[in-house]
Amino acid sequence: MAHAMSDDQVAGELKKMTAFIRQEALEKAKEIQIKADEEFAIEKSKLVRQETSSIDSQYEKKFKQAGMSQQITRSTLANKTRIKVLSARQELLDDLFDKARSKLPEYTKDQGKYQDLCSKLVLEGLYAMNEDKVVVRARKEDYDLVKKAIESARKEYKKSMADKEVLVELDEKNPQSEGCSGGVSVVGGGGRIDINNTLDERLKLLETDALPMVRTSLFGKNENRRFQD
After folding, report:
1. pLDDT confidence of 11, banded at 50, 70, 90?
2. Quick one: pLDDT at residue 82?
3. How confident is the model at residue 226 (pLDDT cuts 50, 70, 90)?
4. Do 198 and 184 touch, CB atoms closer than 8 A?
């Protein structure tokens, strides 16, 4: 027959149960805390990695943008500088040929040299035309001188072309336009072909043909130019 527990025994048992439950609760709470700390640490590390990656990405993007901005700035400055240099060079070349153009009338003052030049210009036209009859046009003030130049050119042409005769007439009805610096035009083909050998036109040709040489003489050879035109 079981004996009934005394009040002290009941109180002792309750105390033991309470202590056990409390111990279990503490251990459980400790486990939860440890797990929570681990999860927090993992989440914190994840967030740190994400923020670090985001900062790195933004920095890289800004760095690239800054680099590109610098390249654009350098390119813009280089182009502006190049344009200024080219503009200054072109102004110098234009001034050079303008001065040469302004001195053309002085060349006609030496009648002997000028007549010899006109003779050579007429002869050049005769060779180019290779016709039996051509017409020469000149300035009104040069008519007497050009007539002599024509005769000299005609004789030289006959001599060099195995006595081939050519009729060369001075077109006094159609003089060179006002402002012409001198020289002649040789017209053939029934008026359809006009070889412009005036001093103004020859200077224009010189500007085109001699420009590369003049440019190199003034500024040196440009290593970046593929074609030296």
Report:
1. confident
2. 77
3. low
4. yes
- Listed residue (159, 145, 77, 78) closest to 115, CA to CA: 145
- Of the candidates 16, 45, 182, 180, the residue with the CA atom closest to the CA atom of residue 113: 182
For residues 38 and 47, what is the distance between their CA atoms, to the nearest angstrom? 14
Percent of the chain past pLDDT 90, that is, above it, reads 37
| DSSP secondary structure string for all residues of 14-67 | HHHHHHHHHHHHHHHHHHHHHHHHHHHHHHHHHHHHHHHHHHHHHHHHHHHHHH
Quote the CA–CA distance of 80 and 74 in Å, as a whole number: 10
Alpha helices in the chain (DSSP H): 7-102, 104-107, 111-129, 143-160, 199-219
